[in-house]
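Subgroup meeting minutes
Present: P.N., E.W., G.H.
Scribe: E.W.

1. P.N. recapped why we're keeping a running log of single-chain structure predictions: easier to compare across weeks, and new members can see raw inputs and outputs side by side.
2. G.H. added today's entry (223 aa).
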Amino acid sequence: MDFSLLSFAPLFKGLIPDEIEAIFSEVPHRIRKFQAGSMIAQSGDTVNSLMLVMNGTVKGEMVDYAGRVIKIEDIPAPGALASAFMFGNKNRFPVNVVAVSNVEILSVDKSDFLKLLKRNEIILSNFLDMISNRSQFLSEKIKFLNFKTIKGKLAHYILQKAGKEGTIVNLGMTQNDLADFFGVARPSVSRAIKELELEFYLEAQGKKIKILDKDGLADLTVD
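Output recorded in log:
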């Protein structure tokens, strides 16, 4: 196994490939392979191991009560799956995990991973950072899903990107990506951006947004 990739993983930040290889020479692990489109884990499955994407990309997605599939995020190598849900009373996958491409997943049983955390303070600190960042990401995702209107979702996203003083924003996503992120159809995102332009809240050119009325955008986030 090529351990050089894991040196770029947040869990092993500060460690070189030789150190990571030495760690895994003592930690039981296995490699599982999945074809594109395969279900890796279903929402509600128990998270009983550390799972790291060694090759390829997976995505987390959920299905709402109307049957709509909402993509939560893409996780490319060397990302971790459900790291924030390994421990706790409800240590279950919160979403479905699906292979976007052919992928290889490195798995370490939870009991063996816990022993590793006790032995290595660097990995322990990195793991705590990871689960904190994941909790913050999921908190932001919930905010977007709670907005009733697409314009409200867009306004919140743009203002968050802009910060307190900014007026020029690079969305960082295509309209397709935004639609997946918000859990709506792509034409709805395109239409909402056009409406915000016609109502003089902003000017849009591709992924670049110029905010014209920041207070007005803020009003749209209040349902």
